[in-house]
Amino acid sequence: MRIISTFFTPLFRPFSLFYPLDKRRLARYNIFTMKNTLTLRPIAHIKTDFKEKFGIPRQSGRAPSLTAELVFEPEFRNPDTLREIEGFSHLWLIFDFSLAHRDEWCATVRPPRLGGNTRVGVFASRSPFRPNPIGLSCVRLLRVEKREKEGCVLILSGADLLDGTPVYDIKPYLPFADCQPDATGGYASAHERDCLTVHFPQALLERIPMEKRAGLIECLADDPRPSYQDEPARIYGMAFADFEIKFTVENGILRVLDVLS
Amino acid sequence: MRIISTFFTPLFRPFSLFYPLDKRRLARYNIFTMKNTLTLRPIAHIKTDFKEKFGIPRQSGRAPSLTAELVFEPEFRNPDTLREIEGFSHLWLIFDFSLAHRDEWCATVRPPRLGGNTRVGVFASRSPFRPNPIGLSCVRLLRVEKREKEGCVLILSGADLLDGTPVYDIKPYLPFADCQPDATGGYASAHERDCLTVHFPQALLERIPMEKRAGLIECLADDPRPSYQDEPARIYGMAFADFEIKFTVENGILRVLDVLS
């Protein structure tokens, strides 16, 4: 970024006469206002069954049966980048919270798990709405598939990412550095086991491809409703793969009413 | 970045006549060449005892007695950003590998733990030399200190960061999502327990402030030598806090010869 600011800063003022740049939006990118910025470029994009935000598991691993594919950008398709990766069972993905880009940031957020009314500090949360909208997820590496068009593709499970999310980095999970069995999870631990009982009529479930059923049920059990809404009469619609799942929730039971395609 | 490219792309050609921009260096920042880039700005900087790269533990937690301070940038000193953070024992830091910025990237790296001669894929390693030079470390949160000038400062242990490293994000460690007791660590696990026996004469050790001694010994035991050099006659010098530690290594024993200040 330093290069850009060195060259363009003197040009900025005269050209703003012709180009009405919104300085507040530019400030978000810190091109002209701060040093030490770092620009990330996507190395890959992920393919998941979540076309919308609603219904994405709240953390990686909440729906361990879900599979996803990580497809590298053409520049990064050299199979050497993945040498020895299959020795690791888990990987970290550092990715773009692409639906959470905002011009402003807020010091506190309201985690859905706390009912949506309690505020915690943004750095005490994994909320996507943060000063730098980057996400961190631990996923399981199932295998590496070599394909003719896309090159080596990583087949993953447990990913909590929107379909098409840009990924900036992949790192191996190192048990001796990353696994902290004595860690305490603050307010987040109190609700980690909250889940719904899912009633999914067999006739409806059979409309979903076999290999996607377990993952879908895990997502529904994780309670996709925002902020613990409690409106038994409300019919929710959740996009999943090529389907729309219609359901209601009452007394801790989620009932699937329909599966549309 | 989309805003920038929209406005400046048509200007780029005429101005390159006057400003001899190095297109290859610009390409690294992807301003003009790729969509979907994301620019990060530092939210904080870390203060550690490592003024140089040599001697920094190879992973977070290798030297658990080391303490570090995370000082927020003025814009991020609102104490609300940290509300409830003290309920978490561990935090993730996402930071800039500021000494590893390069114009080019390489598909493979040579981890020091493998002797420096074996190549593994860059995405199968935690090497700082990667397409997007961002690091990920798990640290222990000891406490939050409120200071008059710097505002709330996080006191951390186990950090493997160079002094002054820009930090882009802090996230709480969530045991139910991040702790994977069954994870396998590939080639990295084979060497995780490698360490040296440290002989540190008491008279020399007493030159180091009491609270820094255990951390320094842990760093030395972690074998700071690059790529398993085995030159018993060589005297190494490692910067640590305000000191330079002189030592030799032979047959798995590190002998401290002098402590300069």
Would you mind describing this structure in some detail?
2 copies of one chain form a homodimer. The first copy, chain A, has 261 residues and is an alpha+beta fold. Chain A has 3 domains: 32 residues, no CATH class; 106 residues, Beta Barrel (Elongation Factor Tu (Ef-tu), domain 3); 69 residues, RelE-like (YaeB-like fold), CATH 3.30.2310. Chain A contains 6 helices and 13 strands. In chain A, the strands form 3 sheets. Chain A has a 6-stranded antiparallel β-barrel with strand order 2-3-8-7-4-9. In chain A, strands 10-13-12-11 form a 4-stranded mixed beta sheet, covered by helices on one side. In chain A, a hairpin with a 2-residue loop joins strand 12 and strand 13. The first copy, chain A, is globular and about 55 Å long. The N terminus of chain A is likely disordered. At the A-B interface, helix 1, helix 2, strand 1, strand 4 and strand 6 of A face helix 1, helix 2, strand 1, strand 4 and strand 6 of B. Strand 1 of chain A pairs antiparallel with strand 1 of chain B.
